Amino acid sequence: MNIDKKPKLTLFHCLNSFKETSSMFDGCQAKTVKMACSSMTKDIHLLKAFEAGADAVLVLVCPEKGCRYSEGSMRAKKRVDYVKTILDDIGMDSRAIEYIQHDSQKTTGLIKDIIQNNDIRA
Amino acid sequence: MITASQKPINEIIKLIAPYKKVLILGCGTCVKTCFAGGEDEVAVLASALRLSFKKKAMTIEIEEQTVERQCENEFIQEASVKMARNDATLSLACGAGVQAMVKRFAKNIVLPGVNTTFIGIQESQGIFTEECSGCGNCELGIFGGVCPVTRCAKKLLNGPCGGSQKGICEINPDTDCAWHLIIERLTTLGQLDNLKTYIPPKNWDTSLSGGPRKLVREDHII
Fold it and tell me: Class for domain A3-120, per CATH?
Protein backbone atom coordinates (compact mmCIF):
# COMPACT_ATOMS: atom_id res chain seq x y z
CA MET A 1 0.00 0.00 0.00
CA ASN A 2 1.19 3.46 -0.83
CA ILE A 3 1.94 5.07 2.52
CA ASP A 4 0.64 8.43 1.25
CA LYS A 5 -2.83 6.94 0.93
CA LYS A 6 -2.98 6.11 4.62
CA PRO A 7 -5.03 8.56 6.66
CA LYS A 8 -3.04 10.86 8.88
CA LEU A 9 -4.05 10.79 12.51
CA THR A 10 -2.84 13.09 15.27
CA LEU A 11 -3.50 11.83 18.76
CA PHE A 12 -3.26 14.15 21.74
CA HIS A 13 -3.29 12.26 24.98
CA CYS A 14 -2.72 12.65 28.66
CA LEU A 15 0.42 10.89 29.86
CA ASN A 16 -1.58 9.45 32.69
CA SER A 17 -4.35 8.05 30.54
CA PHE A 18 -2.57 5.39 28.53
CA LYS A 19 0.61 4.23 26.83
CA GLU A 20 0.45 3.92 23.09
CA THR A 21 1.81 0.97 21.13
CA SER A 22 2.70 1.14 17.47
CA SER A 23 0.27 -1.65 16.57
CA MET A 24 -2.76 0.33 17.63
CA PHE A 25 -2.14 2.73 14.76
CA ASP A 26 -1.94 0.11 11.99
CA GLY A 27 -3.50 1.43 8.84
CA CYS A 28 -2.69 5.10 9.41
CA GLN A 29 0.18 7.52 9.76
CA ALA A 30 -0.01 8.53 13.37
CA LYS A 31 1.54 11.38 15.31
CA THR A 32 1.14 11.41 19.05
CA VAL A 33 1.37 14.42 21.33
CA LYS A 34 1.77 13.57 24.98
CA MET A 35 0.57 16.06 27.56
CA ALA A 36 1.05 16.17 31.31
CA CYS A 37 -2.70 16.62 31.57
CA SER A 38 -5.42 16.87 28.95
CA SER A 39 -6.24 20.33 30.33
CA MET A 40 -3.23 21.40 28.25
CA THR A 41 -5.26 20.72 25.12
CA LYS A 42 -5.56 24.08 23.41
CA ASP A 43 -7.76 24.94 20.48
CA ILE A 44 -4.83 26.34 18.53
CA HIS A 45 -2.86 23.08 18.87
CA LEU A 46 -5.81 21.09 17.55
CA LEU A 47 -6.24 23.42 14.58
CA LYS A 48 -2.50 23.39 13.88
CA ALA A 49 -2.66 19.60 13.65
CA PHE A 50 -5.14 19.98 10.79
CA GLU A 51 -2.97 22.66 9.23
CA ALA A 52 -0.07 20.21 9.39
CA GLY A 53 -2.09 17.76 7.32
CA ALA A 54 -3.96 15.59 9.79
CA ASP A 55 -7.09 13.96 8.41
CA ALA A 56 -8.35 13.30 11.89
CA VAL A 57 -7.46 14.48 15.37
CA LEU A 58 -8.20 12.53 18.51
CA VAL A 59 -7.98 13.78 22.07
CA LEU A 60 -7.69 10.91 24.50
CA VAL A 61 -8.32 11.82 28.12
CA CYS A 62 -8.75 10.21 31.50
CA PRO A 63 -12.28 9.43 32.70
CA GLU A 64 -13.79 12.65 34.07
CA LYS A 65 -13.66 11.54 37.68
CA GLY A 66 -10.23 10.00 37.19
CA CYS A 67 -8.39 13.18 36.20
CA ARG A 68 -5.42 13.74 38.50
CA TYR A 69 -5.94 17.48 38.19
CA SER A 70 -9.72 17.29 38.61
CA GLU A 71 -10.82 19.32 35.61
CA GLY A 72 -8.46 18.31 32.81
CA SER A 73 -10.85 16.02 30.98
CA MET A 74 -13.70 18.52 31.21
CA ARG A 75 -11.53 21.31 29.87
CA ALA A 76 -10.30 19.12 27.00
CA LYS A 77 -13.87 18.21 26.07
CA LYS A 78 -14.91 21.87 25.97
CA ARG A 79 -11.98 22.74 23.72
CA VAL A 80 -12.69 19.85 21.38
CA ASP A 81 -16.33 20.97 21.21
CA TYR A 82 -15.20 24.53 20.46
CA VAL A 83 -12.93 23.37 17.65
CA LYS A 84 -15.82 21.32 16.26
CA THR A 85 -17.85 24.54 15.98
CA ILE A 86 -14.96 26.21 14.16
CA LEU A 87 -14.65 23.29 11.73
CA ASP A 88 -18.39 23.45 11.08
CA ASP A 89 -18.17 27.20 10.47
CA ILE A 90 -15.42 26.84 7.89
CA GLY A 91 -17.07 23.97 6.07
CA MET A 92 -14.90 21.13 7.34
CA ASP A 93 -16.34 17.96 8.81
CA SER A 94 -16.46 18.39 12.57
CA ARG A 95 -16.34 14.62 12.97
CA ALA A 96 -12.67 14.90 12.01
CA ILE A 97 -11.94 15.66 15.64
CA GLU A 98 -13.08 13.42 18.45
CA TYR A 99 -12.74 13.23 22.19
CA ILE A 100 -12.33 9.83 23.79
CA GLN A 101 -12.33 8.98 27.46
CA HIS A 102 -9.79 6.27 28.06
CA ASP A 103 -11.11 2.85 28.90
CA SER A 104 -8.41 0.18 29.04
CA GLN A 105 -10.79 -2.38 27.54
CA LYS A 106 -12.06 -0.23 24.69
CA THR A 107 -9.58 2.49 23.72
CA THR A 108 -7.52 0.48 21.21
CA GLY A 109 -10.67 -0.81 19.53
CA LEU A 110 -12.11 2.70 19.35
CA ILE A 111 -8.97 4.05 17.72
CA LYS A 112 -9.01 1.24 15.17
CA ASP A 113 -12.68 1.89 14.44
CA ILE A 114 -11.96 5.56 13.89
CA ILE A 115 -9.00 4.83 11.62
CA GLN A 116 -11.11 2.47 9.52
CA ASN A 117 -14.08 4.84 9.39
CA ASN A 118 -13.47 7.16 6.46
CA ASP A 119 -16.44 9.30 7.52
CA ILE A 120 -14.45 11.11 10.15
CA ARG A 121 -11.77 12.28 7.77
CA ALA A 122 -11.69 15.99 7.11
CA MET B 1 -13.03 46.69 30.70
CA ILE B 2 -14.60 46.81 27.26
CA THR B 3 -16.03 43.46 26.24
CA ALA B 4 -16.39 42.11 22.75
CA SER B 5 -17.10 38.90 20.92
CA GLN B 6 -15.49 37.72 17.74
CA LYS B 7 -17.52 38.04 14.57
CA PRO B 8 -18.64 34.79 12.92
CA ILE B 9 -15.85 33.39 10.76
CA ASN B 10 -17.97 33.52 7.62
CA GLU B 11 -18.57 37.26 8.14
CA ILE B 12 -14.83 37.74 8.61
CA ILE B 13 -14.12 35.77 5.42
CA LYS B 14 -16.47 38.06 3.48
CA LEU B 15 -14.75 41.13 4.92
CA ILE B 16 -11.26 40.04 3.95
CA ALA B 17 -12.10 38.21 0.70
CA PRO B 18 -11.14 41.16 -1.57
CA TYR B 19 -7.56 41.21 -0.28
CA LYS B 20 -4.52 39.04 -0.94
CA LYS B 21 -2.55 39.71 2.23
CA VAL B 22 -4.22 40.32 5.54
CA LEU B 23 -2.76 41.11 8.95
CA ILE B 24 -4.80 39.92 11.91
CA LEU B 25 -3.99 42.36 14.69
CA GLY B 26 -4.91 41.49 18.25
CA CYS B 27 -5.14 43.74 21.26
CA GLY B 28 -3.62 42.56 24.52
CA THR B 29 -5.84 44.41 26.98
CA CYS B 30 -9.67 44.29 27.28
CA VAL B 31 -10.50 41.96 24.40
CA LYS B 32 -7.79 39.59 25.51
CA THR B 33 -9.43 39.27 28.92
CA CYS B 34 -12.82 38.47 27.37
CA PHE B 35 -11.28 35.94 24.94
CA ALA B 36 -12.21 37.88 21.81
CA GLY B 37 -9.02 39.39 20.44
CA GLY B 38 -5.86 38.56 22.35
CA GLU B 39 -2.84 36.66 21.08
CA ASP B 40 -4.53 33.27 21.48
CA GLU B 41 -7.64 34.35 19.60
CA VAL B 42 -5.50 35.82 16.81
CA ALA B 43 -3.71 32.47 16.43
CA VAL B 44 -6.94 30.45 16.42
CA LEU B 45 -8.65 32.75 13.93
CA ALA B 46 -5.59 32.76 11.66
CA SER B 47 -5.40 28.99 11.73
CA ALA B 48 -9.13 28.61 11.06
CA LEU B 49 -8.91 31.04 8.15
CA ARG B 50 -5.92 29.23 6.63
CA LEU B 51 -7.82 25.94 6.82
CA SER B 52 -10.87 27.55 5.28
CA PHE B 53 -8.90 29.16 2.45
CA LYS B 54 -7.18 25.86 1.73
CA LYS B 55 -10.53 24.10 1.50
CA LYS B 56 -11.99 26.82 -0.72
CA ALA B 57 -8.82 27.11 -2.81
CA MET B 58 -8.54 30.78 -1.90
CA THR B 59 -5.11 32.38 -1.82
CA ILE B 60 -5.09 34.91 0.98
CA GLU B 61 -1.95 35.18 3.06
CA ILE B 62 -2.51 35.68 6.75
CA GLU B 63 -0.04 37.33 9.09
CA GLU B 64 -0.48 37.68 12.84
CA GLN B 65 0.48 40.22 15.48
CA THR B 66 -0.82 41.40 18.82
CA VAL B 67 -0.02 44.76 20.37
CA GLU B 68 -0.52 45.68 24.00
CA ARG B 69 -3.28 48.20 23.28
CA GLN B 70 -4.72 49.32 19.97
CA CYS B 71 -6.29 52.43 21.47
CA GLU B 72 -2.91 54.09 22.16
CA ASN B 73 -0.56 55.46 19.56
CA GLU B 74 2.58 54.28 21.33
CA PHE B 75 1.50 50.65 21.05
CA ILE B 76 -0.10 50.92 17.62
CA GLN B 77 3.22 52.01 16.18
CA GLU B 78 4.59 48.48 16.66
CA ALA B 79 2.22 47.22 13.99
CA SER B 80 3.35 49.64 11.29
CA VAL B 81 5.87 47.31 9.58
CA LYS B 82 3.46 44.43 9.16
CA MET B 83 0.59 46.74 8.23
CA ALA B 84 2.71 48.22 5.46
CA ARG B 85 3.27 44.84 3.80
CA ASN B 86 -0.37 43.72 3.99
CA ASP B 87 -3.32 44.85 1.90
CA ALA B 88 -5.65 45.10 4.89
CA THR B 89 -5.64 44.74 8.65
CA LEU B 90 -8.31 42.82 10.49
CA SER B 91 -8.38 44.37 13.95
CA LEU B 92 -9.58 42.25 16.83
CA ALA B 93 -9.72 45.31 19.09
CA CYS B 94 -12.86 47.09 20.26
CA GLY B 95 -14.41 49.84 18.15
CA ALA B 96 -12.17 52.40 19.82
CA GLY B 97 -9.09 50.39 18.87
CA VAL B 98 -10.20 50.03 15.25
CA GLN B 99 -10.78 53.78 14.99
CA ALA B 100 -7.49 54.61 16.68
CA MET B 101 -5.81 52.47 14.03
CA VAL B 102 -7.71 54.28 11.28
CA LYS B 103 -6.59 57.67 12.64
CA ARG B 104 -2.98 56.54 12.94
CA PHE B 105 -2.82 54.79 9.54
CA ALA B 106 -4.97 56.99 7.34
CA LYS B 107 -4.13 55.14 4.09
CA ASN B 108 -4.46 51.59 5.39
CA ILE B 109 -7.61 49.50 5.29
CA VAL B 110 -8.61 48.47 8.81
CA LEU B 111 -11.53 46.08 9.24
CA PRO B 112 -13.33 45.09 12.45
CA GLY B 113 -13.02 41.45 13.52
CA VAL B 114 -15.08 41.69 16.70
CA ASN B 115 -18.38 43.13 17.80
CA THR B 116 -17.85 45.48 20.74
CA THR B 117 -20.53 44.84 23.31
CA PHE B 118 -20.29 46.70 26.63
CA ILE B 119 -18.27 48.02 29.56
CA GLY B 120 -18.27 45.23 32.10
CA ILE B 121 -16.46 42.89 34.39
CA GLN B 122 -15.58 39.23 34.44
CA GLU B 123 -18.08 37.97 36.99
CA SER B 124 -16.61 34.47 36.96
CA GLN B 125 -14.44 32.52 34.56
CA GLY B 126 -16.02 32.89 31.13
CA ILE B 127 -18.96 35.04 32.28
CA PHE B 128 -18.94 38.78 31.63
CA THR B 129 -21.59 41.20 32.79
CA GLU B 130 -22.40 44.78 31.84
CA GLU B 131 -21.85 47.19 34.71
CA CYS B 132 -21.49 50.70 33.26
CA SER B 133 -23.23 52.58 30.46
CA GLY B 134 -20.75 55.45 30.43
CA CYS B 135 -23.64 57.87 30.96
CA GLY B 136 -21.30 60.68 32.00
CA ASN B 137 -22.86 61.46 35.37
CA CYS B 138 -22.05 58.76 37.92
CA GLU B 139 -24.38 58.43 40.92
CA LEU B 140 -22.99 55.16 42.25
CA GLY B 141 -22.31 56.85 45.60
CA ILE B 142 -26.05 57.16 46.25
CA PHE B 143 -26.89 53.67 45.02
CA GLY B 144 -24.35 51.83 47.14
CA GLY B 145 -22.15 51.09 44.15
CA VAL B 146 -24.79 49.31 42.06
CA CYS B 147 -25.77 51.15 38.88
CA PRO B 148 -29.50 51.18 38.10
CA VAL B 149 -28.89 53.01 34.83
CA THR B 150 -27.07 49.95 33.51
CA ARG B 151 -28.32 47.06 35.59
CA CYS B 152 -32.02 47.87 35.93
CA ALA B 153 -33.82 46.88 32.72
CA LYS B 154 -36.12 49.90 33.18
CA LYS B 155 -33.33 52.27 34.27
CA LEU B 156 -35.39 53.30 37.32
CA LEU B 157 -33.67 55.80 39.58
CA ASN B 158 -36.07 56.11 42.52
CA GLY B 159 -36.76 52.58 43.67
CA PRO B 160 -37.80 49.21 42.27
CA CYS B 161 -40.61 48.69 39.79
CA GLY B 162 -42.31 46.08 41.95
CA GLY B 163 -42.13 43.38 39.32
CA SER B 164 -39.08 41.53 40.54
CA GLN B 165 -39.46 38.22 42.34
CA LYS B 166 -37.01 36.80 44.87
CA GLY B 167 -34.41 39.30 43.76
CA ILE B 168 -34.69 38.41 40.08
CA CYS B 169 -35.60 40.87 37.33
CA GLU B 170 -39.01 40.33 35.73
CA ILE B 171 -37.62 41.25 32.31
CA ASN B 172 -34.80 38.72 32.30
CA PRO B 173 -34.76 35.77 34.70
CA ASP B 174 -30.97 35.49 34.26
CA THR B 175 -30.50 38.93 35.80
CA ASP B 176 -30.53 40.04 39.41
CA CYS B 177 -32.87 42.92 40.20
CA ALA B 178 -30.57 45.93 40.48
CA TRP B 179 -32.82 47.56 43.05
CA HIS B 180 -32.82 44.40 45.18
CA LEU B 181 -29.02 44.58 45.13
CA ILE B 182 -29.03 48.31 45.89
CA ILE B 183 -31.27 47.88 48.92
CA GLU B 184 -29.27 44.89 50.19
CA ARG B 185 -26.04 46.83 49.79
CA LEU B 186 -27.34 50.00 51.44
CA THR B 187 -28.67 47.87 54.31
CA THR B 188 -25.23 46.34 54.77
CA LEU B 189 -23.64 49.79 54.71
CA GLY B 190 -26.25 51.31 57.04
CA GLN B 191 -27.08 53.85 54.34
CA LEU B 192 -30.73 53.09 53.63
CA ASP B 193 -31.45 56.78 54.15
CA ASN B 194 -29.90 57.29 50.72
CA LEU B 195 -33.21 56.07 49.34
CA LYS B 196 -34.86 59.23 50.62
CA THR B 197 -32.81 61.23 48.14
CA TYR B 198 -35.00 62.15 45.22
CA ILE B 199 -33.24 61.59 41.91
CA PRO B 200 -34.66 63.94 39.28
CA PRO B 201 -35.23 62.74 35.71
CA LYS B 202 -31.83 61.89 34.30
CA ASN B 203 -30.10 64.51 32.25
CA TRP B 204 -28.82 62.58 29.24
CA ASP B 205 -26.82 65.55 27.94
CA THR B 206 -23.74 63.94 29.46
CA SER B 207 -24.42 60.71 27.58
CA LEU B 208 -24.55 60.04 23.85
CA SER B 209 -27.50 62.36 23.15
CA GLY B 210 -25.22 65.10 21.86
CA GLY B 211 -23.08 62.94 19.59
CA PRO B 212 -19.57 61.72 20.37
CA ARG B 213 -18.11 63.09 23.59
CA LYS B 214 -14.69 64.50 24.20
CA LEU B 215 -12.70 64.48 27.41
CA VAL B 216 -10.17 67.30 27.66
CA ARG B 217 -7.46 67.47 30.33
CA GLU B 218 -5.82 70.85 29.85
CA ASP B 219 -3.16 70.03 32.41
CA HIS B 220 -1.87 67.24 30.16
CA ILE B 221 -1.87 69.25 26.94
CA ILE B 222 1.32 70.97 25.83
Answer: alpha beta
